[in-house]
Amino acid sequence: MDFRYSAEQEQFRQQIRQFLDDNVSDALREEIAVSGHSPGPLATEFLKLLGKQGWLGIGWPKEHGGQGRSMIEQSIFYHELDLQDIHYGNLTITSLALTLIKLASEEQKQEYLPHILSGDLEICLGYTEPNAGSDLASLSTRAVRDGDEYVITGQKVYTTGAHYASHIWLLARSDPTAPRHKGLSVFIFPLATPGVTVRPIYTMEGIRTNEVFLDEVRVPASAMIGAPNSGFYTIAVALDFERVFMGKYTKIRRNFDALLACCKETDDAGQVLYDDPVIQDRLVRLHIDIERLRLLCTKTAWMIDRGKVPNAEASAQKILASELEQRLADEGIQILGPRALLEYGSPHVPMQGYLAQSWLLAPMMKFGGGTNEIQRDIVAQRGLGLPRG
Q: Do 7-88 and 247-383 fold alike per CATH?
């Protein structure tokens, strides 16, 4: 099998690379590095520029304003962004827009997709609750029909992006009499709707996420995505897309290459680090697993290009990527020693502070998009056909 880019794909890659070389500044990289994943003014401006150039809809069908390109070409785009230290993880583009294209009504597509494509509309996820995380069917947020509206009451937590997003994509129980997984619906509505309150929560890395309170929030019935009580299927589709983009290969590969470069230097005792056979063994094991991730990323892209939604494959990719990022941080800190724990901006920090940042962030990646334990259940049941444990 030939894994090289075709001539057309290589030309596309060069086009993106030239655009990024012309438009990505050191100031933008600096803002992203210190922003705590909340977009600053330069990042917001850059997002709108991507929209203006049509890059945000690379893989969207042309009838919805996209370029109709393949998933492989989308992967090329995100690969080039990562190479520029623009680690773009906007779920509005990579997950929710794709789900809208697949499941929303024509009216909803016309209402939301053009604004997403331009970079003017950003959506946060309202799934997790204080007592419903991995088991979302246990959620208690209610959506009660009242004429042409639904009245939503409840609480969401870890709603990342709610402090700057314009809309929320929210899962609520719309039929309390139905079986747990069958009485749920997804709604999309503005966060400025009366009755919505957003309060900050901070992770140990300093990244802001949020809790969202909903006090008799009235939304039109047309805010529901898909059929009534089909919300569990809707979020399953969205989560599959999310996991594909969570498991990106390039950032991990680039940081491994940076670690490898550090190992070519001498330590305080005057020894070259990668002369140590133990360090060589650690580096080889990381390299092998990074190549496994690259091949899995290629497979999920291939599936999407053929109209399939990767399910077990997306879960496997998410497991491998999140745990590999944790291992890379752990191994890097063990190899480079205490200076690897210095933060970004220190004059003596190796790898621009990636190891310390990743060591703090990686645990969150293991449960974002669904815990890795749940992902293993999905691989077992839907990938291998094993019975429920």
A: no
Q: How far from 291 is each of 26, 123, 262, 295, CA to CA, in Å?
A: 30, 33, 20, 6
Given this structure, which CATH class describes domain 124-229?
mainly beta
**Six token digits for residue 333:** 């800190």
Which residue in the block uniquely carries the two structure tokens 């719309």?
174
Question: What would the two tokens of residue 285 be?
Answer: 């094991």
Catalytic residues: 242
Q: How far apart are CA 341 and CA 334, in angstroms?
A: 10
Would you say domain 7-88 falls under CATH 3.40.50.620? no
How do the domains of the chain map onto residue ranges? 7-88, 124-229, 247-383
Fold of the CATH domain 247-383: Butyryl-CoA Dehydrogenase, subunit A; domain 3 (1.20.140)
Quick one: tokens of 21?
Answer: 């070389």
Q: Indicate the burial class of 176 (C-beta count within 10 angstroms; 0-12, 13-18, 19 or more).
A: exposed
Across the chain, mean pLDDT equals: 89
Pairing of strands 149-157, 142-146: antiparallel
CA end-to-end span of the chain: 37
Q: What is the CA radius of gyration of the chain?
A: 22
Residue 359 φ then ψ, to 5°: -60, -35
pLDDT at residue 1, as a whole number: 57
pLDDT tens, residue by residue, 68-124 = 888 888 888 888 888 888 866 678 888 899 899 999 999 999 999 999 999 899 999
Distance CA 111, CA 256 (A): 42
Q: What are phi and psi of 40, to 5 degrees?
A: -90, -175
CA–CA separation, 377 and 91 (whole Å): 24
Q: 46 with 69: CB under 8 angstroms?
A: no
